[in-house]
Amino acid sequence: xxxxxxxxxxxxxxxxxIQADLKTFSAHGVFGMSVITAVTAQNTKEVRxxxxxxxxxxxxxxxxxxxxxxxxxVKIGMLSSVEIIDTVSSSLKERKSQPIVLDPVMISKxxxxxxxxNAVKALIEKLVPLADIITPNVPEAEELTxxxxxxEEDMVTACKKICELGAANVLLKGGHLxxxxxxxxxxxxxxxxxxxxxVHTKNTHGTGCTLSSAIAANLAKENDLYTAVKKAKQYxxxxxxxxxxxxxxxxxxxxxxxxxxxxxxxQ
Length: 267
Ligand SMILES: Nc1ncnc2c1ncn2[C@@H]1O[C@H](COP(=O)(O)OP(=O)(O)OP(=O)(O)O)[C@@H](O)[C@H]1O
Ligand SMILES: Cc1ncc(COP(=O)(O)O)c(N)n1
Fold this sequence. Notes:
alpha/beta, binds (4-amino-2-methylpyrimidin-5-yl)methyl dihydrogen phosphate, 267 residues, Hydroxymethylpyrimidine/phosphomethylpyrimidine kinase, EC 2.7.1.49, binds adenosine-5'-triphosphate, globular, phosphomethylpyrimidine kinase activity, six-stranded mixed sheet, UDP-N-acetylmuramoyl-L-alanine:D-glutamate ligase, hydroxymethylpyrimidine kinase activity, Ribokinase-like
């Protein structure tokens, strides 16, 4: 069985973060492992509190995994401080070889900041060059590039700028723009649009976590990057179509393997 590791924050409400990542790995038939970087007190409506995990125990979690278990792909989510970014990047650098998917989590859907403002520079300098692909949403790409993104042309300009920052590949998610949710893939040379159809629902908590974990799971299963993204886009579209109307805020995506099989999702 293939394996994937998520390095991210815990969402007590189960919709985003580590919880969404592990559910996504399972739905792909991939064995999931986790390094928890922060514990959030969170539900579908709000983030009530955040406790960062001590960097020493973050490093120990990474070492415990790599000293014993195979890691076929890594997904990085919420790393909120410079110290945590330094720890994760230096530990992963030592254990090269597996593909890394970086979801540069900055703000929760409910509006809570999950990345300290002074940590954006560290994310760009330490994590972006380490990743095989980075998957910002529109506000995150704006923060990384300083470019205001309102149109698909702006998305192309921003993707190119993110590659100039050292990213090998970029998937800029278009979910935050009006119209259909088309995502732009740029490999430093060519662009490709992964097109979606908007599902009119408020239940989109954890969509970015789910998408990046699905890319990691598909990479762990030895798909090439383009195919991994293509399948992940198919997966997130279904996970939103069947998202759960639970809680009073943004409900979570749906991860049941049998449902996807019935709908013809090709793993
Ligand atoms: N309403 C929707 N219907 C269909 N697809 C959507 C919808 N909203 C977002 N998507 C798709 O879901 C994926 C995640 O995009 P989004 O822009 O929501 O990421 P995100 O903001 O990082 O997510 P989050 O921070 O909530 O985890 C993208 O492929 C995007 O195109
Ligand atoms: C621990 C954690 N990681 C990531 C997100 C982003 O997800 P969303 O934007 O859907 O709130 C989150 N809310 N919590």
